[in-house]
Amino acid sequence: MTEPTPRTLYDKIFDAHLVETTEDGTGLLYIDRHLIHEVTSPQAFEGLRQAGRRLRRPEATIAVVDHNVPTDASRHTTIVEPESRLQVETLERNVAAFGVPYIPLASEKQGIVHIIGPELGLSLPGMTIVCGDSHTSTHGALGALAFGIGTSEVEHVFATQTLLQKRARNMRVTVDGTLPAGCTAKDIVLAIIAKIGTAGGTGHVIEFAGEAIRALDMAGRMTVCNMSIEAGARAGLVAPDETTFAYVKGREHAPKGEAFERAVAWWKTLPSDPGARFDTEVRLDAAGIVPQVSWGTSPEDVLPITATVPDPEDAADEARRAQLRRMVEYMGLTPGQPLRELAVDVVFIGSCTNGRIEDMRAAAAVARGRRVAPGVRAMVVPGSGLVKKQAEAEGLDRVFLEAGFEWREAGCSMCLGMNPDKLTPGQRCASTSNRNFEGRQGPGGRTHLCSPAMAAAAAVTGRLTDVRDLAPAPAPLPERQAA
Amino acid sequence: MTPFTTLTGIAAPLPMANVDTDKIIPARFLKTIARTGLGKSLFANLRYKSDGEENPDFVLNREPYRHAEILVAHENFGCGSSREHAPWALLDFGIRCVIAPDFADIFHGNCFKNGILPVKLPRAVCDQLIEDAQMGPNARLTVDLQKQVVIRPNGEEIPFSVDPFRRHCLLNGLDDVGLTMQRGAVIDGFESRQKAAQPWLYP
After folding, report:
1. Which structural domain range is residue B72 located in?
2. Is the pTM here over 0.90, yes or no?
3. Is the minimum CB–CB distance between A330 and chain B shorter than 8 Å?
4. How is domain A291-469 classified at the architecture level of CATH?
5. In angstroms, what separates the C-alpha of A472 from chain B's closest C-alpha?
6. Where is the Aconitase A/isopropylmalate dehydratase small subunit swivel domain (chain B) (predicted)?
7. Mean pLDDT of chain A
């Protein structure tokens, strides 16, 4: 009898969902959970309508609005911007017509699609999860195969609950050692992208492994998997373990009682087998990581906060020199300038990358007892209504408000310039989001990606700051003595 | 979907790496419920100045590239957001083929669903084609999917490879939703087996 070939976590989930394989090796992959939002679904519903088709499993689908929605109180009356309102109303019409479960804007469970999936137990280990949104990779933190799809594929999943997929290559990124104080999951993933580049993971699924990944809580693992796509990989995964099971247990849509025990027994079979083959291996030492910040207009253009703006003329070839000159000009920088001297106009804390309760706590720990620097607009946008509620129960809203931050309603907000939260041309922003592309946060806006603690530090000093340089936070103010 | 067989047209040179989908179509133009009409917003941040006037330096604002049907670019084309609005915008402008050293995965797949052919060729070849494209009105390339060759203005044929199933769908303009729906019984069988093994997925 021969031993079965050792398989990776990705291979196991892929194999378990393979409906059939065609002669040329294209797999028909079954999809367990389909998340949808207002931006990438209307044309897919329209396609169904034109072909007279229905959803194969509406109950395996969940809809929410997040990209277009304002994050101020105005949304409780109406969405003022007519095109945004039309997209939200179109989703509401479509979910009613096709029988899709929907979390309305007024619900306390509304939030960013990638925050609410795990939060409500809709995303579970071992599942295949898709959404018309590239940051679907977030859900891979649970040990699920989760990836973003285009609208034609959204329509394909609607009609068939499957996708046509070629098997991806396996990449393992091992982060050894212990993360130093002041560093977070965001610094890990930014350091990984800086190392392998934005196309480093193309054609691959990344499994994040190693002591530093195992030590992360679920929020941290979600931050890391969220930005797999910025490294070029459609999906990122972390093997499910006791941290995962403890997180899932008791969530609204998670299995309960005996069903939970049975699920855990299956989930425990999923981690990569010893000796499983990875096509590409990358190793990183967590101990060498310093708080990271992006300086350019691609998520690979990241440096330690202690560094200076690079000189484009030092680049190896003319094409790269031209690219770097353009970045330096767009970002309004001078080669050689210390990153810590850059004054910020706006600070954005939130998004599917860093909008969870743990992120709110990390930012609040820096903001506590301090004041937002004069002239800086600092926004805190919880990733969901439930995150907001939890933060308020812990008094974090008061910490932010007393420090001069805005405390807003849940949504994608200033991550992508599709709703009223936008940068104006030339504004510089320390942002906990995931993309620093030209114009991503609004035309002409200048984005510096960083962790929630680093963003909060920038808010209180008014410039990009090494959070490790801030003196320990002053003691909390007595209850009624707040400024 | 319109089949893609052979295309002869003006090629626009875009010697940039990491052309992300926010660059191809910024998020503020995603507030549409239609697939059409996005061509005017293609590359909006590069194509128009802040006052809305055309930027004369941008390639697609110059003749003959206003009529480009092919785009030649550098590495990692289409990275970033999964928005299918990116291929829709290219298509609406009139571009049906993008040639680059490599493509981001999601964008690459989205192209095939919309009758756009992404062609992967080595960087040195792309640079050669970019030089060809800079010849202006004479910059006509032919992309023959049947024979799997790009034909340069001087007649040289450059072979490329493409996934056979995707090629078949593109050549015949096939809608793969329809194809998969014919596998309904096989999907039924999968669901019964999964429901028995993992009942928590079927609450």
Report:
1. 6-172
2. yes
3. no
4. 2-Layer Sandwich (3.30)
5. 37
6. 1-123
7. 96
